[in-house]
TrEMBL record:
The lineage of its organism: Eukaryota, Metazoa, Cnidaria, Anthozoa, Hexacorallia. GO terms for biological process: signal transduction. The gene is LOC116301857. Residues 332-496 form the TIR domain. Gene3D superfamilies: Toll/interleukin-1 receptor homology (TIR) domain. This is Uncharacterized protein LOC116301857. It comes from Actinia tenebrosa. PROSITE patterns: TIR.
Length: 667
């Protein structure tokens, strides 16, 4: 922000950052000599924010209007302004569009008569927005230059903890009564409402009583906060509307999950779930949380929280309570695995795990599982009951490992297919792994709305099976639901009763050491390489490039495709593929040149005059994602490619099998 004209922002280059004052020194791009010391929150990095960094309620900088240069003083350029996102929609190509309004007006000292001024902005793309840096990221980067600052083995005990607690003081009755919330204009009924809620202060005390070392209360020293999060073994975030609206809380949450990559336990307090529309909601989308609804459930939920903490904190009898070290009881081996998309579950909606339901309240996989279990004849595997974590951003294979193990031990898989299921990477992984790799019998149950899923790879695989498809989309009464349920149960028991006891050969198709592959290297371009090894902890391959380039040799499983022509049932509408486009020349002493591949999405499958199947689609990545799009022969679309020109990446379950020790399967 240029202090000479309040609440206007212009482009500049950073000279240095003062970690003590949290201020930047900058040089303006237009060469203006004034206002060169800037508070961190009045500056944004000139980069396209990540998808999970912008949501309803986010504070952003957006372009509006231009200014002319003044000879001998400055050049002209683009004006930027601070705004708040109020609505997120989708454009024709599925790209998110952001609308909002200025956060500052005339009463704040902002100049609002410049040419092009409008109080609101509409349908901006993510690449048109900028966000302020996370101050904790800045301090962490500053501290990394001084290894002792964060990594000191003789660190102050105050900065060492098992658990770091992140919460808004507006959710703590103790904090409000102690006047720790600043000059907040709280209504008289606020204390009364808080009295019924679970207080993070009380939960902190209970954790300490169970022998856990909990980080100190925030003191305003943000460097201390960075150190405590860095040293903590687990972070507990108390999520609420107040939490999502608190800038420091949001930054703690983002820093813990994205930068420090800590295990984060989401704890929801209160009954409002409006925060799910915020950046905080984006960051835990699809994850399980512990809901401390009010004090009537606090004791029960506290035991659940202690168990969750116990998975991340090494415990011992001399330092922890038995409740912390307790391990969930081993559940019986499942007969049936239930694979579904949360978007089609009414029970997920009722639990505030999704913003809206797609489909009928009767066509709910969770209800189907619940009702099939009542007879006591069947043991079923359902994610929310079996998974110890659903943190998909964690740097581990824990979730995939548990799902793969559940699929492997089950004898039959109920697959609740829908358009949402077919578009979900995780759902497709489960389905393809179960059917193609483990060769499990499936019972397809159609849920959700419409029939778009039939053109996808899920539809191709379902149609290739000689099995009855049970359509629950039209189920609107309890009687119809019971009839469909009986049909599902009958088919399950028929498979269990006649299943061949001989073990079928499992077919894991993930790239293995020695395989020739197509692998991501830089800016979403892919090249030929050979697998050297696979890391089961990080889901990463190490490769040797065909062109002998020594850089970028480690890559996630999602961006590695075995150099083999896929089978027709592996590619349908919405499938993610790698396709060829463009080439590159050799660089002396670095590489020998070759062809480029890119990640794309199939949008249409058709046949030519000779009956050959052809595939059309478009890039999945663009300039907003940091992809290089100016190479020779670049085109957003690809058309009429044959199947032998395409490659597909392995799914997470197959990648697990690429490392034998990842888990035990019968040979």
């Amino acid at each position: 922000m240029w202090e000479v004209s309040m609440w206007q922002y212009f482009t500049a280059t950073i000279v240095n950052f003062n970690a003590r004052t949290l201020k930047f020194e900058i040089i303006w791009d237009d060469q203006d000599p004034s206002g060169r010391i800037i508070d961190y929150y009045n500056l944004a990095l000139d980069r396209v924010p990540d998808d999970d960094e912008v949501a309803v309620g986010s504070i952003v900088l957006f372009p509006q209007g231009e200014y002319r240069g003044e000879e001998g003083v400055r050049l002209g350029g683009q004006r930027w302004h601070q705004g708040k996102i109020t609505f997120v929609s989708k454009g024709e190509n599925g790209e998110k569009l952001y609308s909002g309004q200025h956060t500052k007006g005339k009463e704040d000292g902002k100049w609002v008569t410049f040419r092009g001024y409008e109080p609101e902005f509409y349908s901006l793309t993510r690449n048109q927005l900028r966000i302020a840096p996370n101050v904790l990221d800045l301090l962490s980067a500053e501290a990394s230059n001084d290894e002792e600052s964060v990594h000191d083995t003789n660190e102050d005990a105050a900065d060492s903890c098992d658990v770091f607690i992140s919460y808004s003081k507006l959710n703590s009755l103790d904090a409000v009564r102690n006047n720790e919330v600043g000059n907040q204009d709280l209504p008289p009924s606020y204390n009364e409402a808080l009295a019924a809620m679970c207080d993070p202060h009380d939960i902190r005390n209970q954790l300490q009583q169970n022998g856990l070392l909990v980080g100190q209360e925030p003191s305003g020293d943000l460097m201390k906060t960075v150190k405590m999060i860095h040293n903590a073994k687990v972070v507990i975030a108390f999520l609420s509307d107040e939490y999502a609206n608190d800038e420091i809380c949001r930054q703690e949450f983002q820093y813990a999950k994205k930068t420090a990559k800590k295990s984060v336990i989401p704890v929801v307090i209160g009954e409002s779930f409006e925060w799910m529309m915020s950046v905080v909601g984006l960051l835990i989308a699809g994850e399980l949380y512990i809901h401390f609804k009010d004090k009537t459930v606090q004791e029960m939920k506290m035991q659940e929280l202690l168990k969750a903490v116990g998975k991340s904190v090494p415990t011992g009898a001399d330092t922890t309570d038995a409740a912390v070290t307790s391990v969930p009881k081993k559940l019986p081996t499942p007969d049936v695995f239930v694979s579904y998309c949360w978007s089609n579950s009414n029970k997920a909606l009722q639990s505030h795990q999704i913003p809206k339901l797609v489909g009928s309240q009767f066509a709910d996989a969770r209800r189907i599982k619940e009702d099939l279990s009542k007879s006591g004849d069947l043991v079923l595997w359902l994610d929310i009951e079996r998974l110890q974590t659903t943190n998909q951003s964690a740097e581990s294979m824990s979730m995939f490992q548990q799902i793969a193990s559940g699929l492997n031990t089950a004898k039959v898989v109920i697959v609740c297919v829908s358009a949402e299921y077919a578009k979900s990477d995780n759902c497709r992984s489960e389905f393809q792994f179960a059917l193609k790799s483990l060769k499990k019998p499936i019972i397809p149950v159609v849920v959700g709305e419409g029939s778009d899923w039939r053109d996808t790879v899920i539809g191709l695989l379902v149609s290739s099976q000689e099995t009855e498809i049970i359509d629950m989309q039209s189920v609107t009464t309890e009687e119809n639901y019971r009839n469909a349920l009986e049909k599902i149960e009958k088919n399950v028991k028929a498979i269990l009763g006649t299943k061949n006891k001989t073990k079928e050969k499992k077919d894991f198709r993930a790239p293995m050491p020695g395989d020739h592959v197509i692998c991501h290297h830089h800016k979403w371009a892919f090249y030929y390489a050979t697998i050297e090894s696979f890391n089961a902890e990080t889901l990463e391959y190490t490769v040797n490039w065909d062109d002998n380039d020594p850089s970028g040799r480690h890559e996630t499983y999602k961006n590695v495709a075995i150099d083999t022509i896929p089978s027709p049932d592996q590619i349908g509408v919405d499938s993610i593929v790698f396709f060829p486009q463009g080439s590159y020349g050799a660089t002396l002493g670095n590489n020998t040149g070759g062809g480029r591949f890119h990640q794309g999405r199939i949008t249409n499958i058709h046949k030519d005059a000779f009956g050959v199947t052809l595939y059309d689609g478009h890039h999945t990545k663009g300039d907003d994602d940091g992809k290089w799009v100016t190479y020779k022969d670049y085109n957003y679309y690809f058309t009429n490619l044959k199947i032998d020109q395409l490659r597909i990446a392995p799914n997470a379950m197959d990648a697990l099998m690429a490392c034998k020790q990842a888990f035990s399967l019968d040979d």
